[in-house]
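Co-fold these.
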Amino acid sequence: MKALMFGWEFPPHILGGLGTASFGLTRGMAMQPDMDITFCIPKPWGDEDQSFLKIVGVGNVPVVWRDVDMGYVSERLGKYMDPQLYYDYRDHIYADFSYRHVNDLGCIEFSGRYPDNLLEEINNYSIVVGVIARAEQYDVIHAHDWLTYPAGIHAKSISGKPLVIHVHATDYDRSRGNVNPDVYAIEKNGMDNADHIITVSNLTRMTVIEKYHQDPAKVTTVHNAVEPLSPEILAIQDKKGVKDKVITFLGRITMQKGPEYFVEAAAKVLAKAPNARFVMAGSGDMMDKMIRLAASRNISDRFHFTGFMKGKQVYEVLKASDVYVMPSVSEPFGISPLEAMQCGVPSIISKQSGCAEILDYAVKVDYWDIEAMADAMYSIITYPAMHEFLKEEGKKEVDNIKWEYAGQKVRRIYEQVMNK
Amino acid sequence: MKTICFYFQIHQPFRLKRYRFFDIGNDHYYYDDFQNEEIIRRIAEKTYLPGNRAILDMIKTSGGKFKVAFSISGTALEQMEIYTPEVIDSFKELAQTGNVEFLAETYAHSLASLGDEEEFKQQVKRHQNKIYTLFGVKPKVFRNTELIYSDDISELVYQMGFRGMLTEGAKHVLGWKSPNYMYSSIMQPQLKMLLKNDRFSEDLSMRFSNYSWNEYPLTADKYISWIASTPESEQIISLFMNYEVLGTLNAAETGIFDFFKALPRFAAEKGISFSMPSEVFSLLKPVDSISVPYPMSWVDEEKDCSSWLGNVLQQEAFRKINEIGERVRLSDNRRILQDWTYLQSSDHFYYMNTKRGHVGFSPYENAYDAFNNYMNVLSDFIVRVTALFPTSIENEELNSLLTTIRNQGIEIEQLRKELTNTKKKLEKKLTTE
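Predicted complex below.
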C-alpha cells in the first residue's frame, strides 16, 4: 500500500510537536512490510532520516518548465533527492505559473517555518502538490494538520484517491476559543472534504465533532506515542549543581500552555517547601509576562527561565528535574510528559490535555486548580515513596505506548476508506 | 566673584557573564572578564588618559588656578588596577598637584543608601580607605551613586561625619530656587550641599556635539559668557558630569579637549575662578535648606530612582539582595564579600530598566534577559551564603554565637600568653634560686 503524506516539519529540524509526531507515526507505519510512504515537506535540510520513507521537498519540485542539465540539477538538489525525480516532476507541470516568484529551477521557495505570510506559503504548497499528485502513484492521501489540508484536497481532486486528514491541533486549542476565521475556514473545509478524520485524542475528537460539525462516524482517535529514547540520550548525566528539588515546565510559553498557573502554584509550593526550585524552559510571547509575575510573587531567586531549548538540551533539563508539569489549558495531545516519564521524571498534567486519556501513572489536575497542582508538586518532592512509585510505574507505562500500534490503527483506517 | 565647581564621575561595574540555570551550584565565577577588560581599555584610551593629561596641563598652564573633583568608584579603581594601571598612576600625579579633590561614595556605586543602611556605611568606609591607600588623601566630601539624595540619606551622611555633599538640582525639588547657591539639608542644617546646575552641565554632557542644537558649535568663550551673565549674587556654578563627556560621549574630534583647555583663560578674563567642593564648603554659608522626602537622582527627565528601581523586576532583585545583606556581613569569607560588593553595583539594576524610549548602554538584549541572568547569579550566591551557616539560626543568635567564639579565641590566646609568661618567670625564679 502506498500513502502520499503531506506535512510541514520533519526531524531533525523541528519547531514544535508536529514534526516529532509525523516522524514517530511514519516510522511506526513503516514497520508494516508492505507500507510505502512518500512524505512531502516544504523545505528539507538534507539530513532527514530517509531509511523508511521517501522525503519530497516541495520547494524542490518545479512548477515552471526550465531547461536545465542533469549536472546542474544534481549539484543543486543532489543532497535532497534523486535528480531524476526532478525531471519526472517537470513532465507533470499542469499550468503556467511563470507569473509567480520562482527560482532558476522553476521551483517556488519555502521558509519551512511559520512565517508571517503563512497563508501564502500554504497556497504555494498546494500549487506544487498539483505536480506531485500527478507524478506519484499512491492509494491514499494523508494530510497532517491544517497547513496541508488545502494540498490534500487538491491532490484528491486530481487523483480521486481517498483523503485522510490528521488533526494534531485545532485553532480552538491554540487560541483558547478566539479562533482566527481564516484558519477555521481552512480547517473546516479540510474536514468537510476528508473521507476520514484522525484526531490525536478524544478531546480533539469532541472539538472536531462539536465545533466543526463533523459526523462522529467519520472521526477516529489515534493517540500519539513516543519513540524509545536513544542510548545517547539515556547517557546524559544530571548536571544539576544544587541539591534542591527541581520542578520543570517545558514548552512554548504561550496562552495555550497555561504558564501562569505554573507560576502561581510555584509561589504556593515555595511558601511550604523553601528547598524547591522551578525551571520554566522554552520561549514564547508570554515569557516576559511570566518573568514579571514571578518577580511580583517574590520568588525569582528560585524560579529560573532558560530560554528556548532544543535537541539534547531538552533532555538535559528533564534529567535534572524531579517533577515535570504540563498545565496546558487545552492540549490536543501533549507529547512532552511522555518524554519526561521516559526519563523517569514523575509528571503532573492537566485534565484538559489529550495525553491524560492514556496515562494512568501521571498526576492529573484541572489546569485552573492551582491548589491541587501545588499539592501534587509538594507531595512528589516531599515524599520519596510517591516520587519512586510514579517514576517506576510511569516509565513502565510509557514504554508500552508505541508508534507501531498507532500505525496499525491508521492502517485499518486506510483500508476502510479504500474499500468504501 | 563667581566660581566654577567641576566634578567628574567615574565608574565601571563588573559586568556579568552569561550565567545559565545549570551553572547554579557548579560555577562560582560570575564576571565577563573579556568584556570588562575591553570596555575599560577602550575608555581609558579615549577618556581617562587624555582627560587626565589635559587636566594636568590645564592646572600647570593656569598656574594652579584650575581645580576639579573626581568621584571614582571602588569597582572602577579595581578594574584600573588590573587592566590599566597607567590610569591609576596618572590620577596619582593629579593628586599631587593639590588641585584635585577625591570624593567619597559607595564602594560599588551601589543603591545601598536606598535599602540597607549598614551596608551603605560599610561601603562608604571601604571606599574612603581605598582612596586613602591609593592617593594618600581622605575624602571629606560625599557624593552618592548617581547623585541620589533624600532627607533620610542626608541624615546617614551626616552621621558618618561628612559636612558637605553634592547632589542634583532637580526642578521638582528646587522650584523657583536657583541651584547656584549653597543649601543645607532640612534634617541636618550642618550638612551643606552643592547642587548640580542642570543647564550648564547638560550643555556639555548632552548637547555639545549635537549638530541640530541652535547654539552649536559651543565655544569656551560663549560658554563662559553665559556663566558670567548669571545674576551677580549667584556665586557657585556646579558642573557635575560623567568623565566620559571628555572623549567618549563627545569624541576627541568634536574639539571637546580644546574646549576644556580654553576654559581657564576665558574664565580668568571674566574674573571667574575654579574651586574644589571642600573649598567652597569652607568659604560659603548656606542660603536656605531644601527638603527632599522622596529620593532623587541626576538621571533622565524625571530625576528620580525609577531607572534602577522602577519596575517589579528591579524591585524584586533589590529586595533579594537586601534580604541577605545581614547574613553576608556575618561572614568573613573574602570571595563571598567580594562577589557581594560586585553584585550590588547599580548598573545591574539599570540593565533591567523597561522605561519607554530608554537609551542607555546594556550588555543584554533586553531587561528580562538582564533580570534572568542576574537572578541566576544571585541564586548561586545565595546558595553559597546559606551554606556558610545553618539557616535555622536567626541572624541575631548567629551574631552572638560568632562573637562568643571570637571572644573565646582571644581569651584562650591571652590565657596561653599568661601561662607561658608565668612559666618563664617560674623558671627564672628557680634558676636564680
